[in-house]
Amino acid sequence: MERTLVLVRHGQSEWNLKNLFTGWKDPDLTELGIEEAKKAGARLQHDGYRFDLAFTSELVRAQHTLNLILEELGQTGIPIRYDIALNERDYGDLSGLNKEEAAKNWGEEQVHTWRRSFAVAPPGGESLRDTLARTLPYYVREILPEVLSGKNVIVTAHGNSLRALIMVLEGLSPDGIVARELETGRPMVYQFDAVGRVIEHKDLLA
Fold first, then answer.
1. Which pathway does the UniProt entry assign to this protein (predicted)?
2. How many CB atoms are located within 10 Å of the residue 195 CB?
3. Annotated binding residue at 176?
4. Which candidate among 95, 109, 124, 183 keeps its CA 20 to 30 Å from the CA of 151?
């Protein structure tokens, strides 16, 4: 399993449960989120995955997910790198608001545009394009070289920051990446050849 990259969106957070825009706010996992993370780790352990290195964001829900996965794997001693580049998209003025409340304040069409367009940012926040602009360079500079050196790498992060990686790995268009839904706690596995091409992709827990 050399040159393997596993991406995992964090388990359900307290604000996911409350239907709030989260962004760079820092709620922890719910009980369900903890179970999702443990289940992801158990599946990876069952399938024989071993990791040399881990990356995660500076937000607790992603870090907690990673720690639970590594505990299930019995691999808590591997190096972990934390970086703000892997943080969730910043929702700006929407952060902390209930999504239905935001629709009442700004209108459903406007909030839908902020959530689902590629280039339009909410007030004081980031568009998906902005998120890609900080996440992709970090991936190219820090994560991909480790994978291509023969290491097996796991990344736990967030729905929108992971879309940056998936956009490149799966060759998706801006419209395609916006439409890509990522389930909480489901590992996505990418296998690379020696020159950096993805030769296999599968989602676990299917």
1. Carbohydrate degradation; glycolysis; pyruvate from D-glyceraldehyde 3-phosphate: step 3/5
2. 6
3. no
4. 183
181 is in an annotated binding site: no
Separation CA 27–CA 60 (nearest Å): 7
Q: In this structure, are residues 56 and 142 in contact, taking their beta carbons and an 8 Å threshold?
A: no
91 is in an annotated binding site: yes
The strand order across the sheet containing 198-203 reads 80-82, 53-56, 153-157, 4-9, 187-192, 198-203
pLDDT digit string (tens) for 116-159?
Answer: 889 999 999 999 999 999 999 999 999 999 999 999 999 999 99
Helix%, strand%, coil% for the chain, nearest 5:
45, 15, 35
How do residues 67-87 score in pLDDT, each as one tens digit? Answer: 999 999 999 999 999 999 999
The DSSP 8-state label assigned to residue 50 in this structure reads -
Q: What is the mean pLDDT of residues 5-27?
A: 96
What tokens were used for 132? 């890609």
* Spatial distance between the Cα atoms of 166 and 136, rounded to a whole number of angstroms: 10
**Enzyme catalytic residues:** 10, 88
Q: Is the pTM of this model over 0.70?
A: yes
User: Is 9 a known ligand-binding residue?
Assistant: yes
Residues 6+ apart with CB under 8 A from 17: 30, 32
